[in-house]
Design brief:
The chain is of the alpha/beta class. The protein is built from 24 helices and 18 strands. The chain has four domains: 57 residues, no CATH class; 90 residues, GMP Synthetase, Chain A, domain 3; 129 residues, Beta-Lactamase, CATH 3.30.450.90; 197 residues, P-loop containing nucleotide triphosphate hydrolases (Rossmann fold). Helix 2 crosses helix 3 and helix 17 runs antiparallel to helix 22. The protein binds zinc ion.
């Protein structure tokens, strides 16, 4: 039984089939709503019913007058009147409210016969609450609301107040060029769908999305975040040097619309799916370089029950950023020496550990490039593949071959050097150990805060101490700290001396003026520019191996740390302090990345 009166009306008047209306009612109730306008929205947005069919019925149901005329049938005088009312709104210094009305496809349309104070309004949805805001935002207190078909209202708005492409203007100001999809004049038989696609291609949101991809590459951003900000705005952030920065707030845009454009223009995602996590991919040529983008889409909660919001994060994969020269990673002296010793050998495991965004893959890539040559079979197994590595065979993880299957097959594929994206469970850990013990050099990553705890993690995954001790060459724990801008950095201010001394800096060092802090200038982001690593490199000296083998029930991380430090290992924090002494970074950065120690 249908509970909603509008639902009953739709069925009784044979506007929609009972089955469809029932489905709409059910969905509406899932969202916790029950009103005619909520049902209309579900019918249109969720079930794909034609807009005009739904809203004409809704208007008649609510007894709103209907204005059904094509643009050509509308008298010029009427259009002129509408234009004048809109212009008077602009003079009323309320440009943004005018834009809001037009965005919602609400158009003042002259005065009701018999009195200048009754404003006629055309709209595609008479139940839209924005209409009620007219009386509080303008001098017009009494309204007569008419429903009109979508095309009529859009045509009128395009004629009266053609929309400016604000983003293109922004792009032009920034000296960028975004071109529309080329028009194909020779193609005469254009399908409706094709025409629709062209329309989408030309839209502002496409330019916004495409412009954003280009900007991200040029700004050297690692990620783009596209996040709904309320019902009609979207925030675009870029992660630059590890920090999210608001790049643009796009007003008057339904978040769903931009999400749809993102999906439309990437591969591997379903445009109509809005309830599950999706991973897509895009590839663009930016300034003559092929750049790849990995796109992650997740549904998120919105306060508007009938809206389905999604958060979009785009990883920028720019192969030019791959450091192929190991020494350019800039590890500190002893760490670099021991790291090189660990990879210039034919077997053993090299582990890079740290949280997400700590530069693990950059380090692994450089290490891998250091050892690749035509005489060896280099296999990589990662999900997803980040960078394309020349000279390596990178296994393709997907529907047909899972990460686990790939791991199990590696040994049978005659490798010399293997990179396993991440040791995530006992199977991967055992495979890495087996590879190492059968004469293969193996690279991998882990998610632990420091080097000694990586040993504990592997032990807890079920790897025996003896195997751990004799298969691992080195464990590098690393973080990235932002580098001070040399243009504006200044000696650390006195109020921070106390904290600096607690870290181990001396009074003399602080007084010498060679320890700096961030300031900020036009050449940098808040006083920082670029990043460098701080690292704890735990080389497996015989004494370390012995300590691990002797572990009884648990790995004694502290003892291992002590032994390593005796051999000259810098802890993460000491590595950071060394970076401060080099003038590369400041106290705030070092404290930030070593906070958990
Ligand atoms: Zn600066």
């Amino acid at each position: 039984m249908l509970s909603n009166k509008f639902a009953q009306y739709l069925v009784n008047n044979q506007i929609f089939e009972l089955e469809m209306v029932e489905k709409a009612e059910q969905k509406m109730e899932e969202y916790g709503g029950n009103s005619a306008s909520a049902l209309a929205r579900v019918l249109e947005i969720e079930l794909g019913a034609p807009h005009d069919k739904v809203y004409e019925a809704l208007s008649i149901h609510y007894a709103f007058p209907v204005y059904k005329k094509a643009l050509e049938e509308i008298p010029e005088a009427q259009i002129e009147a509408s234009k004048q009312i809109l212009e008077s709104m602009r003079r009323g210094s309320d440009e943004s409210f005018k834009r809001k009305l037009l965005f919602h496809k609400i158009l003042p349309f002259g005065f009701q016969k018999g009195g200048r104070d009754v404003l006629k309004v055309l709209t595609i949805d008479p139940t839209n609450k924005v209409i009620q805001e007219i009386s509080s935002n303008t001098q017009y207190k009494r309204l007569e609301v008419y429903w009109a078909p979508l095309k009529t209202v859009e045509d009128l708005i395009n004629k009266i107040a053609p929309q400016k492409n604000e983003f293109l203007q922004l792009l032009e100001e920034a000296g960028m060029v975004v071109t529309d999809a080329p028009e194909d004049d020779e193609e005469t038989q254009i399908l409706d769908e094709q025409a629709l696609d062209d329309e989408i291609n030309k839209s502002l949101l496409v330019n916004l999305f495409e412009g954003c991809l280009i900007e991200a590459v040029r700004k050297d951003a690692s990620d783009i975040h596209i996040i709904p900000n309320g019902k009609s705005a979207v925030d675009l952030f870029m992660r630059i040097d590890g920090k999210l920065q608001l790049w643009l707030r796009q007003e008057n845009t339904a978040p769903e619309a931009l999400a749809a454009v993102v999906k439309d223009r990437s591969t591997g995602v379903d445009r109509f799916e809005r309830d599950t996590a999706q991973d897509g991919f895009a590839q663009r040529s930016v300034d003559g370089h092929l750049i790849r983008f990995r796109i992650s889409i997740l549904p998120i909660v919105s306060q508007e029950y009938e809206r389905r919001f999604e958060s979009v994060v785009i990883r920028v994969i720019d192969d030019r950023k791959v450091i192929t020269d190991f020494r350019k990673l800039g590890f500190q002296e002893q760490a670099e020496k021991e790291f090189l010793k660990s990879i210039n050998t034919s077997k053993g495991i090299v582990i890079v550990t740290g949280p997400t965004g700590s530069g693990k893959s950059t380090t692994l890539m450089a290490a891998l490039h250091h050892v690749i040559h035509p005489g060896v079979n280099v296999l990589t197994c990662e999900d997803p593949v980040e960078y394309v590595i020349h000279g390596a065979r990178q296994l393709k993880i997907g529907h047909k071959m899972s990460f686990d299957q790939a791991i199990r097959s590696i040994l049978r594929h005659d490798p010399d050097i293997v990179m396993v994206g991440e040791i995530r469970d006992k199977i991967t850990a055992e495979t890495a150990v087996k590879l190492a013990n059968t004469g293969h050099l193996t690279f991998s990553t882990l998610h632990t805060n420091d080097a000694p705890s990586a040993i504990s993690r592997l032990y807890k995954m079920g790897i025996e101490t003896f195997l751990l001790a004799y298969s691992i060459n080195i464990i590098i724990a690393q973080r990235l700290v932002r580098k001070l801008c040399v243009n504006c950095r200044r000696p650390i201010s006195k109020e921070h001396w106390e904290t600096a001394k607690q870290l181990g800096l001396t009074q003399e060092e602080l007084e010498s003026g060679s320890i700096y802090e961030a300031v900020g200038c036009p050449k940098c982001h808040n006083g920082y520019k670029g990043r460098t690593n701080v690292a704890e490199a735990l080389y497996f000296y015989p004494e370390i191996k012995q300590e691990i083998v002797q572990s009884v029930s648990d790995i004694d991380e502290e003892r291992i740390r002590k032994i390593a430090e005796k051999h000259g290992m810098l802890s993460m924090r000491d590595s950071g302090i060394a970076r401060m002494r080099e003038g590369l970074t400041d106290l705030a950065e070092v404290l930030y990345v070593t906070a958990e120690d």
